[in-house]
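Q: Sequence in, structure out?
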Amino acid sequence: MSSVEIWGLVFTALHIIISFAAAIAISLTRKPSAAIAWIMAILLIPYAGIIAFLLFGFGRLPRKRREKQKLVNDYMHGTSGLDEYKSHVESPSWLKPTVAMNNKLGALPMVHSNSAFLIQGYEESIETMAQEIDKAESYVHVEFYILVKDQTTAPVFDALSRAVSRGVAVRVLFDHVATLQLPNRKETMEALDQMGARWHHMLPLKPLKGQWQRPDLRNHRKLLVIDGKVGFMGSQNMIDSTYLKPGNLKRGLHWKELMVRLEGSIVAELDAVFLTDWFSETDEVPHDDPYSSLTPFVHSQREEDYDPRTVFGLDAQVIPSGPSFENDNNLKLFVSLIHSARKRVSITSPYFVPDDATLQAIVTAASRGLDVELFVSEVADQAMVYHAQRSYYDALLEAGVKIYQYPEPTVLHSKHFSIDDEIGVIGSSNMDIRSFSLNMEISMLVHGREFVDQMRKVEDTYRAISKPIDPEHWKLRPLKGKVLDGLMRLTSGLQ
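A: Exactly. Output:
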Protein backbone atom coordinates (compact mmCIF):
# COMPACT_ATOMS: atom_id res chain seq x y z
CA MET A 1 0.00 0.00 0.00
CA SER A 2 1.44 3.35 -1.05
CA SER A 3 1.85 6.33 1.26
CA VAL A 4 -0.83 8.18 -0.70
CA GLU A 5 -3.31 5.37 -0.07
CA ILE A 6 -2.36 5.27 3.62
CA TRP A 7 -2.94 8.99 4.00
CA GLY A 8 -6.20 8.61 2.13
CA LEU A 9 -7.37 5.99 4.62
CA VAL A 10 -6.25 8.19 7.51
CA PHE A 11 -8.23 11.17 6.28
CA THR A 12 -11.25 8.97 5.53
CA ALA A 13 -11.14 7.50 9.03
CA LEU A 14 -10.70 10.96 10.53
CA HIS A 15 -13.67 12.22 8.52
CA ILE A 16 -15.84 9.35 9.76
CA ILE A 17 -14.80 9.87 13.39
CA ILE A 18 -15.37 13.64 13.26
CA SER A 19 -18.70 13.22 11.48
CA PHE A 20 -19.86 10.65 14.05
CA ALA A 21 -18.79 12.84 16.97
CA ALA A 22 -20.38 15.90 15.37
CA ALA A 23 -23.61 14.01 14.74
CA ILE A 24 -23.90 13.10 18.40
CA ALA A 25 -22.96 16.57 19.68
CA ILE A 26 -25.19 18.43 17.23
CA SER A 27 -28.22 16.18 17.72
CA LEU A 28 -28.14 16.82 21.46
CA THR A 29 -28.23 20.60 21.14
CA ARG A 30 -30.25 21.32 17.98
CA LYS A 31 -33.75 21.00 16.67
CA PRO A 32 -33.93 17.94 14.37
CA SER A 33 -34.12 20.03 11.18
CA ALA A 34 -31.07 22.11 12.14
CA ALA A 35 -29.14 19.03 13.31
CA ILE A 36 -29.77 17.24 10.01
CA ALA A 37 -28.70 20.30 8.00
CA TRP A 38 -25.41 20.62 9.89
CA ILE A 39 -24.64 16.90 9.74
CA MET A 40 -25.29 16.86 5.98
CA ALA A 41 -23.00 19.88 5.52
CA ILE A 42 -20.20 18.14 7.45
CA LEU A 43 -20.67 14.89 5.51
CA LEU A 44 -20.89 16.45 2.04
CA ILE A 45 -18.23 19.14 2.43
CA PRO A 46 -16.22 17.67 5.30
CA TYR A 47 -13.50 20.21 6.10
CA ALA A 48 -15.38 23.33 4.99
CA GLY A 49 -18.44 22.01 6.84
CA ILE A 50 -16.46 21.48 10.05
CA ILE A 51 -14.92 24.96 9.87
CA ALA A 52 -18.34 26.48 9.20
CA PHE A 53 -19.78 24.67 12.21
CA LEU A 54 -16.97 25.86 14.47
CA LEU A 55 -17.63 29.45 13.33
CA PHE A 56 -21.41 29.46 13.09
CA GLY A 57 -22.71 26.33 14.78
CA PHE A 58 -22.88 27.49 18.38
CA GLY A 59 -26.35 28.91 18.84
CA ARG A 60 -25.94 30.83 22.09
CA LEU A 61 -23.75 33.65 23.30
CA PRO A 62 -20.77 32.92 25.58
CA ARG A 63 -21.69 31.74 29.06
CA LYS A 64 -20.58 34.98 30.71
CA ARG A 65 -22.96 36.97 28.53
CA ARG A 66 -25.87 34.60 29.22
CA GLU A 67 -25.14 34.77 32.95
CA LYS A 68 -25.50 38.57 32.78
CA GLN A 69 -28.93 38.17 31.21
CA LYS A 70 -29.97 35.71 33.91
CA LEU A 71 -28.69 38.08 36.60
CA VAL A 72 -30.81 40.90 35.19
CA ASN A 73 -33.88 38.68 34.84
CA ASP A 74 -33.60 37.51 38.44
CA TYR A 75 -33.17 41.11 39.59
CA MET A 76 -36.06 42.44 37.54
CA HIS A 77 -38.61 40.01 38.93
CA GLY A 78 -40.27 42.05 41.67
CA THR A 79 -37.67 44.84 41.88
CA SER A 80 -38.36 46.99 38.83
CA GLY A 81 -41.01 49.26 40.32
CA LEU A 82 -43.48 47.96 37.73
CA ASP A 83 -45.45 45.56 39.92
CA GLU A 84 -48.10 48.11 40.90
CA TYR A 85 -48.73 48.82 37.20
CA LYS A 86 -49.31 45.18 36.26
CA SER A 87 -52.35 44.57 34.10
CA HIS A 88 -54.86 41.94 35.15
CA VAL A 89 -56.19 41.01 31.75
CA GLU A 90 -59.28 38.83 31.85
CA SER A 91 -60.41 39.05 28.23
CA PRO A 92 -59.79 37.30 25.94
CA SER A 93 -59.43 34.37 28.32
CA TRP A 94 -56.52 32.84 26.39
CA LEU A 95 -54.35 35.96 26.70
CA LYS A 96 -53.60 35.63 30.42
CA PRO A 97 -51.39 32.49 30.18
CA THR A 98 -49.53 33.98 27.20
CA VAL A 99 -48.77 37.12 29.23
CA ALA A 100 -47.60 34.94 32.15
CA MET A 101 -45.31 33.01 29.79
CA ASN A 102 -43.80 36.23 28.47
CA ASN A 103 -43.19 37.46 32.01
CA LYS A 104 -41.48 34.23 32.97
CA LEU A 105 -39.23 34.18 29.91
CA GLY A 106 -38.46 37.89 29.53
CA ALA A 107 -38.86 39.10 33.15
CA LEU A 108 -41.21 41.97 32.20
CA PRO A 109 -44.94 42.07 33.07
CA MET A 110 -47.84 43.42 31.08
CA VAL A 111 -48.50 46.96 32.32
CA HIS A 112 -51.46 49.30 31.95
CA SER A 113 -52.01 53.04 31.35
CA ASN A 114 -50.00 53.38 28.14
CA SER A 115 -50.52 55.56 25.09
CA ALA A 116 -49.23 54.97 21.59
CA PHE A 117 -49.51 55.89 17.95
CA LEU A 118 -48.06 54.34 14.82
CA ILE A 119 -45.74 56.19 12.41
CA GLN A 120 -45.56 54.94 8.82
CA GLY A 121 -43.51 57.76 7.29
CA TYR A 122 -39.76 57.09 7.19
CA GLU A 123 -38.66 60.71 7.52
CA GLU A 124 -41.59 61.50 9.81
CA SER A 125 -40.39 59.00 12.42
CA ILE A 126 -36.88 60.48 12.34
CA GLU A 127 -38.23 64.01 12.71
CA THR A 128 -40.53 62.92 15.56
CA MET A 129 -37.63 61.27 17.38
CA ALA A 130 -35.50 64.39 16.94
CA GLN A 131 -38.29 66.58 18.35
CA GLU A 132 -38.58 64.40 21.45
CA ILE A 133 -34.80 64.36 21.97
CA ASP A 134 -34.90 68.16 21.97
CA LYS A 135 -37.21 67.94 25.02
CA ALA A 136 -34.84 65.69 27.00
CA GLU A 137 -33.86 66.90 30.46
CA SER A 138 -32.00 63.97 32.01
CA TYR A 139 -30.97 61.25 29.56
CA VAL A 140 -31.43 59.81 26.08
CA HIS A 141 -30.87 56.13 25.36
CA VAL A 142 -30.34 55.18 21.72
CA GLU A 143 -30.10 51.59 20.49
CA PHE A 144 -30.24 50.62 16.82
CA TYR A 145 -28.99 47.62 14.89
CA ILE A 146 -27.75 50.06 12.23
CA LEU A 147 -26.81 53.61 13.16
CA VAL A 148 -25.36 55.87 10.45
CA LYS A 149 -25.14 59.63 10.24
CA ASP A 150 -26.28 60.74 6.80
CA GLN A 151 -28.47 63.42 5.26
CA THR A 152 -31.66 61.67 6.38
CA THR A 153 -30.62 60.89 9.96
CA ALA A 154 -28.83 64.21 10.58
CA PRO A 155 -31.81 65.66 12.52
CA VAL A 156 -31.44 62.97 15.20
CA PHE A 157 -27.67 63.43 15.46
CA ASP A 158 -28.09 67.20 15.65
CA ALA A 159 -30.71 66.80 18.40
CA LEU A 160 -28.40 64.46 20.33
CA SER A 161 -25.61 67.03 20.08
CA ARG A 162 -27.91 69.75 21.43
CA ALA A 163 -28.96 67.43 24.25
CA VAL A 164 -25.35 66.84 25.31
CA SER A 165 -24.69 70.58 25.26
CA ARG A 166 -27.61 71.00 27.70
CA GLY A 167 -26.02 68.52 30.09
CA VAL A 168 -28.21 65.57 29.10
CA ALA A 169 -26.56 62.15 29.35
CA VAL A 170 -26.61 60.51 25.91
CA ARG A 171 -25.83 56.80 25.67
CA VAL A 172 -25.70 55.06 22.30
CA LEU A 173 -25.49 51.40 21.29
CA PHE A 174 -25.25 50.03 17.75
CA ASP A 175 -24.30 46.68 16.27
CA HIS A 176 -20.64 46.27 15.39
CA VAL A 177 -20.80 43.94 12.38
CA ALA A 178 -23.87 45.57 10.82
CA THR A 179 -22.19 48.97 10.82
CA LEU A 180 -18.94 47.58 9.38
CA GLN A 181 -20.81 46.79 6.18
CA LEU A 182 -22.10 50.33 5.59
CA PRO A 183 -20.65 53.71 4.55
CA ASN A 184 -20.08 56.68 6.88
CA ARG A 185 -18.95 54.40 9.71
CA LYS A 186 -15.96 56.56 10.60
CA GLU A 187 -17.95 59.78 10.26
CA THR A 188 -20.69 58.40 12.53
CA MET A 189 -18.28 57.51 15.33
CA GLU A 190 -16.51 60.86 14.98
CA ALA A 191 -19.85 62.67 15.25
CA LEU A 192 -20.69 60.81 18.47
CA ASP A 193 -17.24 61.56 19.90
CA GLN A 194 -17.40 65.24 18.98
CA MET A 195 -20.78 65.77 20.61
CA GLY A 196 -19.63 64.00 23.79
CA ALA A 197 -22.03 61.06 23.70
CA ARG A 198 -21.04 57.80 25.33
CA TRP A 199 -21.29 54.98 22.81
CA HIS A 200 -20.42 51.30 22.48
CA HIS A 201 -20.64 48.59 19.88
CA MET A 202 -23.07 45.75 20.51
CA LEU A 203 -21.70 42.20 20.26
CA PRO A 204 -18.32 43.42 19.00
CA LEU A 205 -16.06 41.04 17.09
CA LYS A 206 -12.65 42.12 18.36
CA PRO A 207 -10.63 38.94 19.01
CA LEU A 208 -7.50 40.80 20.08
CA LYS A 209 -9.55 42.38 22.89
CA GLY A 210 -11.10 39.07 23.88
CA GLN A 211 -14.48 40.02 22.39
CA TRP A 212 -15.70 37.11 20.31
CA GLN A 213 -18.81 35.04 19.79
CA ARG A 214 -20.49 33.35 16.87
CA PRO A 215 -20.10 36.02 14.13
CA ASP A 216 -23.69 35.93 12.91
CA LEU A 217 -25.26 36.43 16.35
CA ARG A 218 -26.31 40.06 16.17
CA ASN A 219 -28.23 42.61 18.24
CA HIS A 220 -31.10 43.54 15.91
CA ARG A 221 -33.07 45.76 18.31
CA LYS A 222 -34.27 49.29 17.51
CA LEU A 223 -35.37 51.53 20.35
CA LEU A 224 -35.10 55.04 21.75
CA VAL A 225 -35.93 56.25 25.28
CA ILE A 226 -36.09 59.89 26.42
CA ASP A 227 -36.06 60.55 30.19
CA GLY A 228 -38.01 57.35 30.80
CA LYS A 229 -41.09 59.26 29.60
CA VAL A 230 -41.22 58.77 25.83
CA GLY A 231 -40.11 55.73 23.87
CA PHE A 232 -39.91 54.56 20.26
CA MET A 233 -39.54 51.07 18.86
CA GLY A 234 -40.26 49.18 15.67
CA SER A 235 -38.57 48.05 12.49
CA GLN A 236 -36.66 51.13 11.36
CA ASN A 237 -32.90 51.44 11.51
CA MET A 238 -31.22 54.82 11.87
CA ILE A 239 -30.07 55.22 8.26
CA ASP A 240 -31.35 56.58 4.96
CA SER A 241 -34.20 54.58 3.45
CA THR A 242 -31.90 53.37 0.63
CA TYR A 243 -29.31 52.07 3.14
CA LEU A 244 -26.82 54.02 0.99
CA LYS A 245 -25.81 50.88 -0.89
CA PRO A 246 -24.85 51.35 -4.56
CA GLY A 247 -26.92 48.32 -5.58
CA ASN A 248 -30.01 49.70 -3.87
CA LEU A 249 -29.52 53.13 -5.42
CA LYS A 250 -29.09 51.58 -8.86
CA ARG A 251 -32.30 49.55 -8.48
CA GLY A 252 -34.18 52.44 -6.87
CA LEU A 253 -34.89 50.42 -3.72
CA HIS A 254 -36.07 52.10 -0.56
CA TRP A 255 -37.36 50.69 2.72
CA LYS A 256 -40.86 51.06 4.22
CA GLU A 257 -41.08 50.81 8.01
CA LEU A 258 -43.48 50.99 10.93
CA MET A 259 -42.52 52.63 14.23
CA VAL A 260 -44.54 53.33 17.35
CA ARG A 261 -44.25 56.26 19.77
CA LEU A 262 -45.02 55.32 23.36
CA GLU A 263 -45.72 56.89 26.74
CA GLY A 264 -46.63 55.28 30.03
CA SER A 265 -45.42 52.31 32.03
CA ILE A 266 -44.20 50.50 28.92
CA VAL A 267 -41.38 53.04 28.42
CA ALA A 268 -39.77 51.77 31.62
CA GLU A 269 -39.70 48.30 30.05
CA LEU A 270 -38.01 49.65 26.92
CA ASP A 271 -35.47 51.31 29.19
CA ALA A 272 -34.91 48.02 31.02
CA VAL A 273 -33.95 46.38 27.71
CA PHE A 274 -31.54 49.20 26.91
CA LEU A 275 -29.99 49.08 30.39
CA THR A 276 -29.54 45.32 30.09
CA ASP A 277 -27.69 45.71 26.80
CA TRP A 278 -25.62 48.59 28.18
CA PHE A 279 -24.69 46.49 31.22
CA SER A 280 -23.87 43.52 28.98
CA GLU A 281 -21.48 45.60 26.86
CA THR A 282 -19.93 47.79 29.57
CA ASP A 283 -20.47 46.05 32.96
CA GLU A 284 -22.09 49.33 34.04
CA VAL A 285 -25.57 50.26 35.23
CA PRO A 286 -25.94 54.05 34.96
CA HIS A 287 -26.16 55.61 38.40
CA ASP A 288 -28.99 57.98 37.48
CA ASP A 289 -31.40 55.26 36.40
CA PRO A 290 -30.63 51.78 37.76
CA TYR A 291 -33.20 49.02 37.34
CA SER A 292 -34.63 49.54 40.81
CA SER A 293 -35.78 53.07 39.94
CA LEU A 294 -37.54 52.28 36.67
CA THR A 295 -40.60 54.28 37.63
CA PRO A 296 -43.43 54.32 35.09
CA PHE A 297 -44.32 57.71 33.69
CA VAL A 298 -47.84 59.00 34.25
CA HIS A 299 -49.37 61.27 31.60
CA SER A 300 -49.41 64.87 32.76
CA GLN A 301 -50.89 66.44 29.64
CA ARG A 302 -54.51 66.60 28.64
CA GLU A 303 -55.47 64.06 26.00
CA GLU A 304 -56.42 66.85 23.59
CA ASP A 305 -52.78 68.09 23.69
CA TYR A 306 -51.50 64.85 22.17
CA ASP A 307 -51.12 63.88 18.53
CA PRO A 308 -54.64 63.04 17.29
CA ARG A 309 -53.48 59.53 16.37
CA THR A 310 -52.69 58.74 20.01
CA VAL A 311 -54.56 55.83 21.60
CA PHE A 312 -54.81 55.83 25.40
CA GLY A 313 -55.38 53.23 28.11
CA LEU A 314 -53.44 50.40 26.49
CA ASP A 315 -52.11 47.26 28.14
CA ALA A 316 -48.66 46.43 26.78
CA GLN A 317 -45.74 44.12 27.43
CA VAL A 318 -42.18 44.18 26.12
CA ILE A 319 -40.68 40.81 25.21
CA PRO A 320 -36.90 40.77 24.69
CA SER A 321 -35.51 37.70 22.97
CA GLY A 322 -32.31 36.31 21.52
CA PRO A 323 -29.31 34.08 22.15
CA SER A 324 -28.69 35.59 25.60
CA PHE A 325 -31.86 33.78 26.72
CA GLU A 326 -32.23 30.04 27.14
CA ASN A 327 -35.55 30.05 25.24
CA ASP A 328 -36.74 31.42 21.92
CA ASN A 329 -39.00 33.97 23.61
CA ASN A 330 -40.41 35.59 20.48
CA LEU A 331 -41.03 32.24 18.77
CA LYS A 332 -43.07 31.03 21.74
CA LEU A 333 -45.04 34.29 21.80
CA PHE A 334 -45.83 34.21 18.06
CA VAL A 335 -46.86 30.55 18.01
CA SER A 336 -49.00 30.93 21.13
CA LEU A 337 -50.88 33.91 19.70
CA ILE A 338 -51.49 32.32 16.29
CA HIS A 339 -52.82 29.13 17.88
CA SER A 340 -55.09 31.24 20.12
CA ALA A 341 -56.60 33.28 17.28
CA ARG A 342 -60.34 32.85 16.78
CA LYS A 343 -61.13 35.00 13.75
CA ARG A 344 -58.19 36.59 11.97
CA VAL A 345 -54.39 36.60 11.69
CA SER A 346 -52.58 39.28 9.69
CA ILE A 347 -48.78 39.02 9.43
CA THR A 348 -46.24 41.44 7.95
CA SER A 349 -42.68 40.11 7.73
CA PRO A 350 -40.04 41.09 5.18
CA TYR A 351 -38.07 37.92 5.80
CA PHE A 352 -40.47 35.02 6.22
CA VAL A 353 -38.55 31.78 6.78
CA PRO A 354 -40.51 30.09 9.58
CA ASP A 355 -39.52 27.09 11.62
CA ASP A 356 -41.83 24.07 11.66
CA ALA A 357 -43.80 25.24 14.71
CA THR A 358 -44.61 28.64 13.21
CA LEU A 359 -45.48 27.24 9.79
CA GLN A 360 -47.79 24.64 11.32
CA ALA A 361 -49.47 27.27 13.51
CA ILE A 362 -50.21 29.46 10.47
CA VAL A 363 -51.37 26.55 8.29
CA THR A 364 -53.54 25.24 11.13
CA ALA A 365 -55.12 28.67 11.66
CA ALA A 366 -56.06 28.87 7.97
CA SER A 367 -57.32 25.27 8.02
CA ARG A 368 -59.55 26.17 10.97
CA GLY A 369 -61.30 28.63 8.68
CA LEU A 370 -59.67 31.80 10.02
CA ASP A 371 -58.93 34.74 7.75
CA VAL A 372 -55.12 34.52 7.49
CA GLU A 373 -53.00 36.88 5.40
CA LEU A 374 -49.28 37.45 4.91
CA PHE A 375 -47.67 40.62 3.56
CA VAL A 376 -44.21 40.29 1.98
CA SER A 377 -42.16 42.23 -0.54
CA GLU A 378 -42.25 41.62 -4.26
CA VAL A 379 -38.58 42.55 -4.36
CA ALA A 380 -35.85 41.72 -1.85
CA ASP A 381 -32.36 42.82 -0.94
CA GLN A 382 -31.21 39.34 0.18
CA ALA A 383 -31.43 36.75 -2.60
CA MET A 384 -31.00 33.63 -0.44
CA VAL A 385 -33.71 34.65 2.02
CA TYR A 386 -35.97 35.78 -0.82
CA HIS A 387 -35.85 32.37 -2.48
CA ALA A 388 -36.02 30.46 0.80
CA GLN A 389 -39.24 32.20 1.84
CA ARG A 390 -40.86 31.52 -1.55
CA SER A 391 -40.47 27.81 -0.89
CA TYR A 392 -43.08 28.08 1.88
CA TYR A 393 -45.77 29.70 -0.25
CA ASP A 394 -47.15 26.43 -1.67
CA ALA A 395 -48.10 25.07 1.75
CA LEU A 396 -49.54 28.42 2.83
CA LEU A 397 -51.61 28.93 -0.32
CA GLU A 398 -52.91 25.37 -0.23
CA ALA A 399 -54.12 25.92 3.35
CA GLY A 400 -55.94 29.09 2.29
CA VAL A 401 -53.50 31.78 3.42
CA LYS A 402 -53.72 34.92 1.31
CA ILE A 403 -50.26 36.20 0.35
CA TYR A 404 -49.79 39.80 -0.79
CA GLN A 405 -46.58 41.10 -2.41
CA TYR A 406 -45.84 44.75 -1.74
CA PRO A 407 -44.76 46.24 -5.10
CA GLU A 408 -41.19 47.15 -5.99
CA PRO A 409 -39.10 49.26 -5.72
CA THR A 410 -40.22 49.43 -2.08
CA VAL A 411 -38.85 46.86 0.34
CA LEU A 412 -41.58 46.28 2.92
CA HIS A 413 -39.44 46.05 6.06
CA SER A 414 -42.20 46.49 8.67
CA LYS A 415 -42.50 43.75 11.28
CA HIS A 416 -45.88 43.37 12.95
CA PHE A 417 -48.96 41.21 13.15
CA SER A 418 -52.46 41.38 14.57
CA ILE A 419 -54.72 38.74 16.10
CA ASP A 420 -58.52 39.03 16.00
CA ASP A 421 -59.73 42.52 16.98
CA GLU A 422 -57.67 43.52 20.03
CA ILE A 423 -54.20 41.94 20.03
CA GLY A 424 -51.21 43.38 18.16
CA VAL A 425 -47.46 42.75 18.11
CA ILE A 426 -44.86 45.18 16.76
CA GLY A 427 -41.09 45.25 17.02
CA SER A 428 -37.79 44.34 15.40
CA SER A 429 -38.38 40.62 14.94
CA ASN A 430 -38.93 39.03 11.57
CA MET A 431 -40.89 35.81 11.38
CA ASP A 432 -37.84 33.77 10.45
CA ILE A 433 -35.38 31.36 11.99
CA ARG A 434 -32.68 34.02 12.32
CA SER A 435 -34.89 36.32 14.40
CA PHE A 436 -36.13 33.41 16.49
CA SER A 437 -32.74 31.97 17.43
CA LEU A 438 -29.79 34.09 16.31
CA ASN A 439 -30.70 37.77 16.67
CA MET A 440 -31.36 39.73 19.84
CA GLU A 441 -34.81 41.22 19.21
CA ILE A 442 -37.47 43.26 20.97
CA SER A 443 -41.21 42.82 20.50
CA MET A 444 -44.18 44.50 22.15
CA LEU A 445 -47.51 42.82 22.77
CA VAL A 446 -50.41 45.29 22.87
CA HIS A 447 -53.92 44.64 24.15
CA GLY A 448 -56.29 47.32 22.95
CA ARG A 449 -58.89 47.47 20.21
CA GLU A 450 -58.19 51.07 19.15
CA PHE A 451 -54.50 50.31 18.67
CA VAL A 452 -55.30 47.21 16.62
CA ASP A 453 -57.69 49.35 14.58
CA GLN A 454 -54.67 51.52 13.70
CA MET A 455 -52.73 48.40 12.71
CA ARG A 456 -55.66 47.29 10.56
CA LYS A 457 -55.57 50.62 8.72
CA VAL A 458 -51.87 50.07 8.03
CA GLU A 459 -52.62 46.57 6.74
CA ASP A 460 -55.40 48.01 4.59
CA THR A 461 -52.93 50.38 2.92
CA TYR A 462 -50.63 47.44 2.18
CA ARG A 463 -53.44 45.36 0.73
CA ALA A 464 -54.72 48.21 -1.44
CA ILE A 465 -51.54 48.40 -3.49
CA SER A 466 -50.09 44.89 -3.09
CA LYS A 467 -50.29 42.10 -5.65
CA PRO A 468 -52.06 38.97 -4.37
CA ILE A 469 -50.50 35.66 -5.34
CA ASP A 470 -52.89 33.48 -7.31
CA PRO A 471 -52.50 29.86 -6.10
CA GLU A 472 -53.05 28.33 -9.55
CA HIS A 473 -50.68 30.72 -11.24
CA TRP A 474 -48.07 30.12 -8.54
CA LYS A 475 -48.04 26.39 -9.30
CA LEU A 476 -47.09 27.18 -12.91
CA ARG A 477 -43.98 29.20 -12.13
CA PRO A 478 -40.79 28.02 -13.90
CA LEU A 479 -39.05 24.86 -12.67
CA LYS A 480 -35.77 26.77 -12.33
CA GLY A 481 -37.34 29.04 -9.72
CA LYS A 482 -38.81 26.11 -7.81
CA VAL A 483 -35.43 24.36 -7.67
CA LEU A 484 -33.65 27.52 -6.50
CA ASP A 485 -36.32 28.14 -3.86
CA GLY A 486 -35.91 24.60 -2.55
CA LEU A 487 -32.13 24.76 -2.44
CA MET A 488 -32.17 28.04 -0.54
CA ARG A 489 -34.68 26.59 1.90
CA LEU A 490 -32.11 23.96 2.86
CA THR A 491 -29.64 26.63 3.94
CA SER A 492 -32.14 28.07 6.42
CA GLY A 493 -31.64 25.02 8.63
CA LEU A 494 -28.01 25.91 9.34
CA GLN A 495 -28.77 27.68 12.62
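Residues 3-56 form one domain.
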